[in-house]
Design brief:
Layout: H1 3-13, E1 24-28, E2 32-37, E3 55-60, E4 67-69, E5 72-74, E6 81-84, E7 91-92, E8 101-106, H2 108-115, E9 129-130, H3 136-149, H4 154-173, H5 184-199, H6 206-213, H7 217-228, H8 232-249, H9 255-261, H10 267-278, H11 282-291
Helix pairs in contact: 2-4, 3-4, 5-6, 6-7, 9-10
């Protein structure tokens, strides 16, 4: 990890090590960071009674999330956000299955500057739980896409999206969201996406996805492509490849094990698909990790 990126992460998270983040996808700008445990836990998050210098908003996607703070368990519902103040002691309680969540860390400076517009600066959250507005997921996706693209003007775009994310959270947390209804199709497709993130290592068919969405297979395929830009199976393949690459980067040394764990039928199928997507075989990633 680049020194500058690690410094930005530590400004938000605290004195975290690169080793503690080896299973985590990190998207970091100036004053905001998104952290997603991809193939294992964040080893800093499960450290007992740690805290962050930034505000932390943990958006959960399943019912497996469990945190401890002030001697009590906090178990958010799927889709709920837990708000954690800077300096508040807490830790994630690891379970048999890795909980799916995005930790959104917003610097004290950025948060309080924008909160003044709502007369909220300095108001404690104290582990308040709330449901985000329907726009938040798309804003997070936009931030991650821009972060990975590395295009000219990217820092300016990230700064703008960071402000929008901050306002989305402030409005939802303090009950000043608009009353615009959720779009039904988007909710159903999000349900399928969460299902795929839980079951990507298993045999999954379009028919099964359609059942989860409560749609016919043909209608589901059309709606899924409209919402995500990909066919259901291409989305699943991309997800499996992303999970596999994360395992390889984190130090996994058996290609066959990674292939089977991520839902590929064989070593050869995985290698061919990986090469088409990333331009190199999985073994090249392993070699780079060992050399680095």
């Amino acid at each position: 990890m680049e020194t500058r990126k690690l410094e930005k992460i530590r400004a938000l998270v605290g004195e975290v090590s690169e080793e503690q983040l080896k299973y985590v996808d990190c998207f970091v700008g100036d004053g905001i960071g998104l952290f997603i445990p991809a193939v294992g836990p964040c080893l800093y998050a499960i450290t007992r009674d740690h805290s962050h210098p930034a505000y932390s908003f943990v958006l959960t996607f399943d019912d497996k999330g469990n945190f401890q703070a002030k001697g009590k368990n906090i178990t958010p519902a799927p889709g709920e956000v837990v708000a954690i103040d800077p300096g508040s002691l807490h830790h994630e309680v690891p379970g048999q299955e890795q909980s799916r969540y995005i930790a959104i860390l917003i610097s004290h400076t950025l948060h309080d500057r924008e909160a003044r517009q709502y007369d909220l600066a300095g108001k404690a959250y104290d582990f308040h739980r709330f449901f985000p507005g329907p726009e938040l997921i798309n804003l997070l996706k936009e931030f991650m896409t821009e972060h990975e693209a590395g295009l000219p003007g990217g820092e300016a775009v990230l700064a703008a999206v960071s402000i929008r994310i901050t306002h989305s959270i402030l409005r939802a947390a303090h009950g000043v969201n608009s009353s615009a209804p959720h779009i039904s199709n988007r909710i159903e497709i999000n349900r399928v996406v969460e299902y795929l993130h839980r079951r990507y290592g298993e045999k999954v068919t379009v028919d099964k996805m359609a059942t989860v969405a409560a749609m016919s297979p043909s209608h589901f395929s059309r709606v899924f492509r409209k919402e995500t830009g990909l066919s259901p199976m291409n989305y699943l393949i991309d997800l499996r490849l992303a999970k596999a690459r994360r395992l390889l980067v984190s130090g996994e040394t058996c290609v066959t094990s990674v292939a089977l764990r991520c839902g590929f039928a064989s070593h050869s199928h995985f290698t061919d698909t990986f090469r088409k997507r990333f331009g190199c075989p999985p073994s090249d990633v392993m070699t780079t990790v060992k050399a680095g």
